[in-house]
Design a protein that fits this description.
Layout: E1 3-6, H1 16-25, E2 31-36, H2 48-54, E3 62-67, H3 75-81, E4 85-89, H4 96-105, E5 109-114, E6 132-136, H5 152-165, E7 171-175, H6 180-189, E8 193-196, H7 198-201, H8 206-215
Parallel strand pairs: 1-8, 2-3, 3-4, 4-5, 5-6, 6-7, 7-8
Helix pairs in contact: 2-3, 5-6
Length: 219
């Protein structure tokens, strides 16, 4: 099954609660929430108070993607705000293993994000400890960027590693430049969770956009 996670980074911030409700109404599986600190990445978005404010707008799981330095400082606040899974960037954690286990000790799902230049080897000693690996198919920090095709072999290799270890419950999520065409490519490579922002929220028919991601396939 393909998981579709609309990114509210592309939503209308003036009507954020309604756009979150829309995501559930059109058949999304998760709400993807990009938290940026203006340091790890150039952009600055929102924090735990906004997560808490929209928690009552949907029953969908909150898939929180932390593009911040020292992400461990936000974990308790995000738990209280209603996060269901938290993904951190390997480079942003002084002690990645400790941060992953801190997330799981809060009763949340833990993920690790890999930037385009980040090798899969950073997961070598934590692969059995995570619930999700996020392959960035753009450089992090901004919505609306073009998909980087060179990430497809990376997705394939990660899928091969997970299958070889029997880690079939670990999601491979992709984020960046996802539309019906690129969705087919990443799914064929082994991804099963798709983050899409502009493709859904910028569409004249968001319902059809979600459906096209779920059904996308390479002939």
């Amino acid at each position: 099954m393909t998981i579709v996670a609309p990114s509210i980074l592309s939503a209308d911030f003036a009507r954020l609660g309604e756009d979150v409700r829309t995501a559930e109404r059109i058949g999304a599986d998760w709400i993807h929430i990009d938290i940026m600190d203006g340091q790890y990445v150039p952009n600055l978005t929102f924090g735990p108070p906004i997560v808490a404010a929209i928690r009552s707008c949907t029953s969908l799981p909150f898939d929180v993607h932390l593009m911040v330095n020292t992400p461990e400082k936000l974990l308790d606040d995000l738990k209280r705000a209603g996060a269901d899974r938290i993904t951190v960037h390997a480079e942003a954690c002084l002690h990645l293993h400790r941060t992953i286990h801190a997330i799981r000790e809060l009763g949340l799902k833990a993920g690790v994000a890999l930037n385009p230049h980040t090798p899969l080897s950073v997961l070598d000693y934590v692969l059995e400890d995570i619930d999700l690996a996020l392959i960035m198919t753009v450089n992090p920090g901004f919505g609306g960027q073009s998909f980087i095709p060179a990430m497809l072999p990376k997705i394939r290799e990660l899928r091969s590693r997970l299958d070889a270890k029997g880690l079939t419950d670990v999601h491979i999520e992709v984020d960046g430049g996802i539309n019906a065409e690129t969705a087919a490519l990443v799914k064929q490579a082994g991804a099963n969770a798709l983050v899409a922002g502009n493709y859904i929220y910028g569409s004249d028919d968001p319902l059809a956009a979600v459906a096209s991601l779920r059904s996308a396939s390479v002939e």
